[in-house]
Structures
1.
Amino acid sequence: MGLLRRVARARLAGLVIRRLRRAGFADAKYDARGFRVRFTADGDETPTILELAPLLATRGGRRRERVDRFVAGLVRSPGLPLDWVQARPLLRPVLRGGTPGTPLRRPVLPFLSEFVVVDSPDTMTYVGPEQPAGWGVSAEEVFEAARANLSGAVLHGVANEPVVVRFVDDGDAYWTSHLLLPHWLERLAGQVGGVPVAFAPERGTLLVTADGSDHLEGLFALAEEIYAASSRPITPMGYASDENGCTVPYQAPPGTPLHRAVTRAERVLAIREYARQAATQPDTAGAPNTAVPRGRPAGAERPARPTPPNQAEVPNQAEVPNQAEVPNQAEVPNQAEVPGPAEVPGPAEVPGVAELPNPAGLPDLAELRLVDSGERGWRTRALWERNEPILLPTADEVQVGENVCLWAELAAHLTMAPGFEPTRWLATGWPRA
């Protein structure tokens, strides 16, 4: 990160903390590594985490006005609605990987979970695991109410050939969350020119194209590029619908053209989520609320990226473009342009995560790396460099000292460690030769 950007982030954090402290939030503190502010609202037992990245997109007086509006909203209505009748229409589902604290969640896809937020004009606040009981409802009712509040919008028009549709989120549409709705993705078949395949590389971007199209391999590369550069990533993987209309990971069997791209995306996601886990100490103070300023889409502060072919930008209501309106195929990046293994972030490089010490008494958390095994394709490798207890991530293979062995060869010597998501495995010492 350049010096000017670090200065801009520090200035923004200082502005937010000054406004919060003037408003009575005396414990407001800045987490420079995670680029967020933590404070406790009156009447709340758990802290609130304010993500600062969305505020960085606005400048000058507009930024100050937005900060003032956000803080004023906290003063007027700190915390979550107390009544289920008030809360229910404000709930929205969100698809995320690692999230600060321990909000209400349920696993829905590999390394990804469904969370619920309370959507207000200026902030989104994650619902905590104890909140449903306070509203007098079950967690399942909260999830179902949140899904029911999505628009479920459907594109208009029919594509004459496979195209790429890009959904642009203005902060209100929750396009990536629509992947949680049964049958929503499959209903886009007519508009993308075939069986839909979707990518949600970051919170503000949803890309959909047709399976079997010439665009698909390039979209795997583009999705990883967006995912790697984003401060608010979700997943580089592709997704399709199963026979029940539920969103599932896109599959490409060995020997098919997309197998390497699919297996790489799966493993890049695993590496980043394990790196996030290793960089974040479990919160022992309870589950914080996470407040996110509303308005400009996530990632708006970054320069524009290349546009895929035959692509329409879809606002809250969308139509498939005429074929004459779309760019040519040469703009899709080749798979060769995908970042190499060295560019997959390690624990200290994951955006939005503070690197904290490992809790006392726990073995070290082993690093997970991406390696290219030639004919076997992309693989994950966990590093166990010293003969001492360690917590291993699930991997294709493990480097034990100077030797590399398959995961199956070690499985009998491992014990699942409780309290880790994604799963970690306790290994007490190198197996005897």
2.
Amino acid sequence: MTASVIFALVGAAALYFAWRGMHSMNILQRFGMPIFLGLFILGIFMLSQGHAIAGPGQWVSLTPDDPTVMWQAFSLVNGQIVFQALLATDYGRFSRPQIGYKGTAGIMFGEMIMIAVVLILGSLLAFTVYPSISQGDPVLYSTDPGFVFAMVMGFLGVVFAIITQIRINVMNLYSGSLAFSNTWDAFAKRPIRRNWWMVGLLILGIALYPVNVLQYTDTFLAVTGIMTNTWIFILLADYYVCRKVFKYAPTEKIDYDEKVIRDWNPCGMIAMGVAVIIGGLGLAGMYPIYYASFIAMFIGPILHVLLTVITKGRFYSLVDNAAKHQA
């Protein structure tokens, strides 16, 4: 009963902050981050007082005879880091225009470095507390920060977990609602406000929580790696190869006006579709799932560059690039 009440309060707080949009994001970043860092440092200190810290040399696989373990770990990390980069670039859209593309890239890489550090510290926490967990599933509990910090810090750990979950859920609700509303607007004539997509996502999350959807985290991160990694690498290939090397489109002051650009660029769409299908074959068991995101993220950008070169970049704007080059 207590857990359900806490879960409901966290959901209500996340909904309130996410409803207010970027204003709340700024508040959470400005005040939430220092609180988070303070409690995290305190938690690590309290952990060191009651447990023998497990260093990197002690982070050994529980199944040492399985040669695929490292690839499985890479697959999970791959999805998580790139997902964080997407959130960072979305947040970077609201930064000062003066920072330009380089400044936005700096925000993205800063977030990626931060999540990499968090992943390393997560391994330290998990391997440190794993030997002391004697009930339930030690692997599941040792990888659950909410359980670990509550066990180590007591009431402060519960507060820390609640603050962390509010920050995470607000980011997820905000970014998810933007993604759904933008996608809907691209296909439908009647728009649905971002706020209502956010409410729908929250309801869906509450509905999925009791069925222990977290047990499918590895599959979710594999799907995230296949789709988001492929998309990001296609964008990078488009910018650095198609635009900078082949000069099919400008690299600065990129047009976003619907009157100037085409509705769809089939080169990117086809490359994305083919790569996702090939990655989906891994999810279907046609080949090991932990290779799926890596295969997709390499096939997508290569195919995009090939298609762009074949079509001579004529899908970047309403004016045929081939005609412009001849002129």
3.
Amino acid sequence: MKLLSALVWASMILAAAGCRDEREPTEIVLRVTDWGSPVVESDFMRIEREILEGFEQQQHRAGRKVRVQKEQIPGPGQYAPKLTMMYVAGCAPDVVHLDASCGALFIDNGMLMDLAPLMARDPSFDRSIYFENVLNITRRGEAVYAVPLDFTPMMMYYNRKLFQQAGVPFPRNGWSWEDFLTTCKALTVMPPGAKMPTQYGFNFENVLPFWIPLLWTGGGDVLSPDGRRASGYLDGQATVEAVQFLADLILKHRVAPSIAERKILGGDAFLNGKAAMDLKGHWTLIDYHAPDRQLDVGVVGLPTRTGKPVTIIYVTGIAISRSTRHADLAWEYLKYMTSAQVQIKRVASGLAISGNREAADFYRARDDQDNPIEAEFHQAVEYARPAWGATVENFPMCEAFGQEMMEDILYGAATVPEATRRAAQYMDAVLAP
């Protein structure tokens, strides 16, 4: 509850401003929040508008005048705090696009409606159309607080052209940390006399949601299994060795860019052809396959030290505010947005894997058989773990401590054991009841 309490003061600002919807007297306005900038125009945003207009037309045919009022919240890391302030101020939206990696904040503070009763009494709703393990991420016992819209496991991308030029075989599932390091070295190009490589084997980014699955592949973790403490886990032997392995990629082996080198490179090293591998989600395919890029990429599971495959899965779900006055309409919107017909249109850009099995299989069936990207992502769904933020309310604060920890290590301000021990103590403090 600490994060929620810290935001209460801001509710006065929102309350003073009011929670407005612009409507004609006879129309119903369904307020829907999502992240992203409302001023950024893209093919995806145009498709999204067409989809929302389709819902309005569907409701019009049913005799209701409905307008979907999309309220987007821009800015990295701003969605959860600003959405929380809307709830505290009493101007919650009707429908929430829920980032499950911070879902605990909204679920455990009673902001969202339990959808299980709506599912049970609606004969047209079939929960079997969704990936069960993805749907379960927002469950609490028998209660269900969101239905998956789309999702992505984090996977290892590789630039097939750079591999072919170097004469290096493409990586295969089941590869080890040693295989990964060997591959990174083979793909790194350091000209004689140069101060930094002109090409790196791996594009490491200091973003905890990106690198936490690499801790898991080494048998480590940030938190205890019950999510209540970091001490003994973040600073445990397996995690310390995993963090050291990551740091050595940059500081010892120089197969991934340092913080300073990333600034010199500018932009995304993998996207710009300056790194041969990158750990990202499905959404990056939009950029990789853009007409001005057309990167020839492959996808493979993460290298593992334990021999067991593991990765993290990030999910966007559709949830309904407990305070909504339009629960039935919000439920119709949820079903519409997660239907196969809408999902096939919505994920055509490559944004993510559809939470609807039929739509997901539609694109899997169209895979390039010589480079089956969708099949690799689908395979990872079976063993992927949810983000800690799905069940631990204050984990977003832990993510910030983790990033600071890694920064201290990479700048040489602390050794790995020192940095992990200190970060674990900070995390324990925010996780304490």
4.
Amino acid sequence: MKKENKELAKKKKAAARKRRQAARGFKTAMWILIPCLVIAGIVGGIVYGEKRAKLNYSAGLTDDGYIAGANLAEMVTLGDYSAIPAKKSELITDKMVQDKIAETLAAKATLNKESTKTTASGDKVSIDYVGKIDGKTFQNGSATGYTLTIGEGTLVDGFEEQLVGHKAGDKFTISVTFPEKYEQNTALQGKQAEFDITLNGIYEAPELTEDYVKENFSDHASTVEEYYQYVEKTTYHENLRDFAQAYLTEHSEISEVPAKYLGKIKNNYRAGYEAEYNYYNRLYYSYTGAYMWKDVYAYYDMTKAEFQKQLEESATESAKFYMLMQRVFEEEGMTLSEEEVQSFIMASDYTESEVAEAIKTYGEGYWHQNAMADKVMEFLAGKVVVSEGE
């Protein structure tokens, strides 16, 4: 729920997909997998001589979700949000709706072993492969039923590009040269390998038909047209909130960010990064008897300075977002009931019986702050004045 640097968020989404693929084919494919980015949970301890951050979601917050010890009236000058101007074309278009529908259907794609499609970059495929160097197979160089999306960079450079232009059932051989500095397995550094590939099939999204809508989206619609209207309505509302928040950010001024609060957010961000690094480093160790990366910076392919810069930027953006939300909440004299907080928690995919555990895990402050921000976002969305102009 934390507001994050957009560029980082985009990288994280792509990286999460890569990690899921890596985990599925880990035993057989680990030597040709390359490291990538993602955020995860946290455990405490020491990382190669450096103190590891510990995650506390409610750090720096009061139980009712306010930033502790900060007088935001002295730090934040709010822009005028009484009538936020927007053009309808900025908020919703047919393409936005079609893209959202396509994204939803793509997530429900299934493997079609009889597909007549020719593979292209971006296609999700299933392959079997057997790797050989000098005609001999090598350890962890083969896999069966390995799933990947062509072009995401899950596998060693040059591998995925050669999967383009084939059809389900094709058998072919590709050639790959491992990098000179291939840290995953130094025995493969600079070596040329051949991989015998069997393209098992291509994942294809389902067609949006009346029957498919009834079977899969009955909570929202019973026909294709009704489903389109539902997606249009929800997409419009999401964009309305985002537009209002972006407008407020652009037209407001923040003179300073509370140092202690910013430090707490940075600590949580680092905790997530370190947890991901440690999890996969230990996973590699469990199969190879050796750690793959010497530290968290190597894992993310950053220098220490680059890593810290990314932390600073992401944490600062998050802090400013919550400062603005709290300031509007205060300025408008809003209140937040426990019932509203509970409803927000349940809207975050928790059942009523799980609310207490969610609060125990994340803390009162975390849930109150995010429920507060959600209420403010809804309020700001109501302040947008939409015109029909282009």
